[in-house]
Amino acid sequence: MLAYLIGILTFFQVQNYSIDYYNTQQGLSNNIVYDVHQDLEGFIWVATENGLNRFDAYEFKTFYHSESNSYSISSNVVRSIFESKDGRLWIGTRQGINLFNKQTERFTRFIAPDSLNLTSNDVLELEADSQGNLWYVNHSRLFKFDVSAEKYQEINVPFTIYKIVIAEGDIIWITTYEGGVYTYHIRTKELQKIKQVATGDNISFFLASDKRTKLYNSFDGMLTLDGWKKLPVLDTNNKVERFFEDTKGRRWYGSKENLYVQESESGSVKKIDLSESPEPVLSTIKTITEDKTGGIWVATVDGLYRIRSKEKNFQRPQNEPSFKAVMAIEESGNTWWVNYFSGNLTKFAFSDSGELVEESYIDLANGINQIWDIQAVSDNMLWLATEEGLFELDKKSFQVSRIDTFEEEREYEVFFIIKKDRPGVFWAGGYSSVLKIDSRTKEVLSRIEIVDEYEGALVQDIMPVEDGLLIATETHGLFHYSEAFGLSKTWNQKPIPAQLDQISIWDMFQSSHKKVWFAGNNGLYSLNSYDDFLNPIKSQIEDNLIVFSITEDHNQLLWLGTDKGLVRYNPITKEYRRFDSGDGFENPEFNRRSIFTSRSGRIAAGGMSGFVYFDPNEININLNEPEVWITNLRIITPDSTEEVITYQVEEVNLGWHQNTFEINFTALNYTNSSENQYKYKLVNYDPDWVEPEDSRFARYVRVPAGQYEFKVIASNNDGVWNETGDSVQIRINPPFWQTYWFRTLLFIVVITLAWMLYRFRVQQLLEVERVRLRIAGDLHDEIGSGLSGIALTGDLLQDQLKEGNPKPEMIQKISGNARNLASSLDSIVWLIDPSKESLLDLLIRCKQVARDLLPNCDLVVLDEIPESLHNKELSSETRRGFYLIFKEAVHNIYKHAKAERVEIRFYLEGDTLEISLQDNGIGFHEEKVLKGKGLDNFRKRAQEMKGVFSLKTGEGKGTTIIIQKALP
Fold first, then answer.
1. Residue-wise over 41-59: b if at least 16 C-beta within 10 A, else e?
2. What DSSP letter does each residue of 496-555 carry, written as one string?
3. Which helix (H) or strand (E) element contains residue 3?
4. 393 and 381 in contact (C-beta within 8 Å)?
5. CA 714 to CA 681: how far, in whole Å?
6. pLDDT single digits (tens) 91-113
7. Spatial separation of the C-alpha atoms in residues 779 and 772, rounded to whole Å
8. Which end of the chain is more exposed for a tag (fewer CB within 10 A), N or C?
9. Running DSSP on this structure, what letter comes out for residue 69?
């Protein structure tokens, strides 16, 4: 009985834990969560009733089953997740085991054979032995999956199994529905009964973080390798269903309704409500596990929870009033006086346990409902700066009386601020003026009017200085007042800096470093006071931040109330840290002059949603460097997008047309991940690091071809950077016309063409030279010999004239030679005329020569070449060869054949041009003629034009000459 009572421990609501909750509204695919696991890379995997989820601290990516995709998961009902030491991720589903490939994001399915007689292949709570084989329970039966052989095997045992776990030494600990505890030795296959404990409804099983196997139930205790130990009894309705021991030695107990934590083995058990009104069915805990940074993940049938120790111990008072906007806070004695704007004063005090609780609520009289400032003027009295004037509150009797400050023509004045000048003397400022008041006599000692000269200069703060006052106003900035010079825009005979003029200044504070700090719409400014009046130096905090209030903690760090949260600023190192809604604030907007440091060192800050209080020494920093991953690269084209998974990929190769892309990355910090920061750089493209705002991707447009490296680094929510980050090589291949091989080929082609052009030019020059030589030869042979004949005949005729006996035939011979010479010259000119290169020109010329040289013969010309081919061009060699052979053949007929009839035939068969001449002359013996030069010239000319010459003749049989040449 005593042992049982010792197990009953005290429960109370835990205050030092923060809880993050995820359900379908945050992107989880289903609220029924069976298992949760953090993989070696830092991603969180969540097994649900409808899909497998991967969480990257920002969003859930869900993997679903698809009938049309054999690489999808085998079932949407995902039961368990196990990762082997080599990083392989095994997924247990209602339809067997799946292996997930992280690089391709594909699943390999392993479906149990029909021979196992399974109604469903439900894989619950995967375990692995030292060989890497998987073990699980399905419908109270024990199964092994041989990973290397990819085979399922049932292990027959004589009982119905409740749970299993594998301990060191490859021992499977088994609990049964009959209440038995067994061990099964995997290597020896020996089954041994350890103990009979209780009915199955009270049995649970777990493997703690110290790797010791433990079996426990709610009544008999907990079995460890060290023996039996008692478990705490939660209550009669909440027995332990799940247990987890984290790396800090804390013990976590899960019931059907709540989560409990025992921070040490001998410590008390504390309850953590997972919802404000938990229902047993909706809060059943399925899994408790721990991530690398110490966060505790709890899988329930009503969503997923992450529980962490509060790094930022910002607290709210218990039973805070519903009207939450706080404008002023003041400490007097051991109590805090808090003004809930448009409400009334509330008095708070600290309990023995250190919590701030409401002590009393003061309903102010006289219609006071807008208090702008609270100031303790004595042990018993508070002054209130209100919309209706200045009031005094007796802290004991709660009696309120008005302080008469207005002049005869004014019914009342509005006051925003009260500041102490010296004991018994205070300053109060409002719309139009600043008053100096004796707190004992309530007498107004002096009045500084502002509205007459600076209309709308609402006084927001007053700071007594050695030679007078600094007065901060709305819209007109900073003023200085002294009795000698009155109200002015100068201080210490130097002008008020331009940065502090014509702006709204909400608060002023003089730090222990003797600097005066100004909080305004343009941020935080500082200047050295008194002796060295310098231009204000804007502190190195983020832009576009409105600073409403300033205080200093006992470590000489400034705390600022801003429109975007609390800021801690180190004036020496210029380092700052902003705390916002992710750190526990309902609304991160704070109000003017609503922050103060108490005598105990606590700081209180009022805002639009009540106020928070904290010990600055308990505001810890998250020191965990976040793991950084480049998750994918999305190629963007005008008509589509293509995703490339870059997870653990060293290099991505892209085509030249894929040079517009978007790179996505993430930092796996699960604590207030919205405050993670990133820097990225595309080496060889970006000149410096890029710092994106509120985005986790980098987009590049039309990046030139080349080799690049994309780097990304990130910090966690407290500015702790992972300087290594992640990187991926990106190669953008150039178009083929920009490649080295193409340029090399193009160079070779250009050189080849240049060489061919050179060769062509040389050939042209050679051809021109050959033509010149030919012309010279023809001129020498034809014209030279003709002219020589004319000259010789002329000499003979001249001799005959001297003798007085000229012969007429000499004149006729000169005339004939001259005509022959003109004909030869005409032929030469025709041969070199580039406009006479068609087949028709050759035909016309040949016909003309035949008619000129054979006027007395019966000439028959047969032109069998189609007119459509008359324009076919002939090379100069072909034209010259045909013409010269034809002309010499006609000339031989004219001189030697004595023919009466000559038949000339032009014929084109295929691509072969044929010209034949046939006469009925005397013919000749071919053997005799072969010894001459005439036929040799025919054959030589035919060979030069790459043609064929043939001859048929005989004495008295006439002669036939045929010339053939294949035309291109």
1. ebbbbbbbbbbbbbbbbee
2. PPGGGBSS-EEEEEE-TTSEEEEEETTEEEEEE-TT-----EE-SS-SS--EEEEEE-TT
3. helix 2-6
4. yes
5. 12
6. 999 999 999 999 899 999 998 88
7. 10
8. N
9. -
